[in-house]
Amino acid sequence: MITNDVLRRVRYALQLNDKKMLEIFASVDNAIDENYLHSIMEKEGEENFVFCRDSLLSLFLDGLINEKRGKKEGSSPVILPAKAILSNNDILRKLRIALNFKEDDMLNALASAEFPVSKSELSALFRKRDHRNYKECGDQLLRNFLNGITERFRGTSGKDA
Predict the structure, then answer these.
(1) CA distances (Å), 108 to each of 33, 70, 91, 111, in order?
(2) Nearest 5°: phi and psi at 12?
(3) How far apart are the first and last CA of the chain?
(4) Which InterPro entries does the record match to this protein (predicted)?
């Protein structure tokens, strides 16, 4: 999934307005202006579309964690190195932390999107990359998880986002 789509779907699912989005970005020392926010919220192919860098999405998710769970004392935002890629597994992990989801919450979100996975499949997504049972999170699984959290927080299908 492209990072713009993830950002747009998270915003829709959690009902975040422009002001709240800008506050989340600012909370991780990455203040952006409203025009840039609108540009990264555009869909691919639209006139003002600007690609959202992986580092920007990572900072936003870190800000969302701070917003939902509280900021850790003495911690500062971690900026991805240049050309580093934020994997779907990383996105899923950060969303899980921000939303304070336990295993059952994750499974329920996926089941509500009609994409059931087993507990062992889910735990494989959160293992370290070099673990023998590690599994890559595919775009379809991430998309369905985002649809599931949209269903949970908005009561509507995430396909509208």
Answers:
(1) 36, 25, 18, 5
(2) -65, -45
(3) 14
(4) YehS-like (IPR009921)
The structure tokens listed for 113 are: 């999107």
pLDDT for the residue numbered 129:
92
CA pair distance 13, 147, nearest whole angstrom:
8
d(CA 90, CA 110): 17
pLDDT at 157: 61
Residue written as tokens 């369905």?
144
**What are 22's two structure tokens?**
């800008």
Is residue 27 within 8 Å of 63, Cβ to Cβ? yes
CA 128, 26, 22, 16 dihedral sign is positive
Q: Which among 137, 139, 82, 146 has a CA at the least distance from the CA of 113?
A: 146
The interaxial angle of helices 34-41 and 3-14, nearest 10 deg, is 110
Which regions in the chain score pLDDT beneath 70? 74-77, 157-161
> 12 near 150, Cβ under 8 Å?
yes
Count of Cβ atoms closer than 10 Å to residue 6 Cβ? 22
Neighbouring residues of 47: CB distance < 8 A, sequence distance ≥ 6: none
